[in-house]
Specification:
The strands form 3 sheets. A 4-stranded mixed β-sheet has the order 3-2-5-4. Strands 1-8 form a two-stranded parallel ribbon. It contains 5 helices and 8 strands. 19% of the residues lie in helices and 25% in strands.
Length: 186
């Protein structure tokens, strides 16, 4: 991971909740500079840190925000949406049968042909070869055993899993608000 002293491409701002924690780690909660400036003018955010870059209008000048915090707290205890991305994040982007991280899809533990539903409790991440070999059978019938049994994660669990996947680059002004083990490059 690279720590940048210049604004990343597009000069996005790290968005923090009102408690100064990121709204999301994976994907990292970033807003484009235009959306950030709009939120500043609408009074929805506080500017915590800025880049050296400045935007101008005929009557106004402002340093681009690099970190903003919401003025109103957004509760993080809501149940996470069932999406392919959240499923992969829950399962740490690895096949629950063999552990591989390539060519991922999702598998109904109890096949749909046998009444299995598309729910957190019946879906696991599977690589295409494992999914194909399992076919319309249960894992037991196919001689497979999921590493973890499927269940509905909490938003906190998804955030925690997201911390395992830091982005390729971070701006130095973001580091005080992110909780990864980061080695600074000279």
């Amino acid at each position: 991971m690279q720590v940048l002293s210049r604004p990343p491409s597009g000069a996005p701002a790290l968005v923090l909740n009102a408690d100064y924690r990121p709204l999301s780690y994976y994907p990292l909660s970033l807003w484009p500079w235009q959306e950030t400036i709009k939120a500043v003018f609408l009074g929805r955010v506080e500017v915590v840190s800025t880049y050296d870059a400045v935007i101008h209008s005929p009557t106004f000048e402002m340093r681009l925000p690099s970190v903003v915090s919401l003025k109103n707290y957004v509760a993080q205890d809501r149940p996470p949406a069932f999406t392919r991305f959240n499923l992969f994040l829950r399962d740490s982007f690895s096949c629950q049968y063999c552990g591989r991280g390539e060519d991922l899809t999702f598998d109904h533990v109890i096949p749909r042909s046998r009444g299995g539903r598309t729910t957190w409790e019946n879906i696991v991440t599977a690589c295409a070869p494992c999914n194909l070999s399992k076919g319309g059978r249960t894992p037991r019938e196919a001689g497979l055993k999921p590493h973890r049994m499927p269940r509905r994660p909490t938003m906190y669990e998804l955030q925690d899993h997201g911390r395992r996947f830091p982005p390729n680059h971070l701006h130095e002004s973001w580091l005080d608000y992110l909780y990864w083990d980061i080695e600074l490059e000279a």
